[in-house]
Amino acid sequence: MDLEIGFQWFPENVHEYLQGIGIQAGYRALDGETKDPIYETPEDGSGAGELIGYNTTPLYGVSDSSYSLVLSYERDKFDVRLSYVYRDDFLASNNRGFAQPALRYAASEESMDFQVSYDITDDWVVTFDATNLTNPVYQSYWSDPTYWNDGSSIYSPTFALGTRFSF
Questions:
Q1: Would you say 42 and 79 are in contact if contact means Cβ atoms under 8 Å apart?
Q2: Pair 45, 31: CB distance under 8 Å
Q3: What 8-state DSSP symbol labels residue 42?
């Protein structure tokens, strides 16, 4: 099952100063699985052996659900965007290097970004970008997040000032 819903709204009947304000939102739900082959290892260790079945797991790298929300303001020479993205935990990989295969998951993720741009002229734009404003923690774990942490990372906010010129 795959469901995707999107919404965009830029109201027209607002005060002059609010003309250009808008909202974009999206939601996605996906329910799928993959079948990985299981082979019997020959006693002499030669080759993969005979196919004896399949291990059914969720799709790799795909969350069951995710959503995004963007608030924007676009007016003449000035644009502002604030965006938020969230996704559920997901199966990242199946590590077959262990004596027993272990499923590696990534915990749910979120991100908030901010962007402002100003057109100095028709050919020259100045921008300011800020990413990871929620200071998110990303975690991966083996089979059970309570006991088997694989790694954790904090992606700190980054800020960039830029300019574009076209000719």
A1: no
A2: no
A3: P
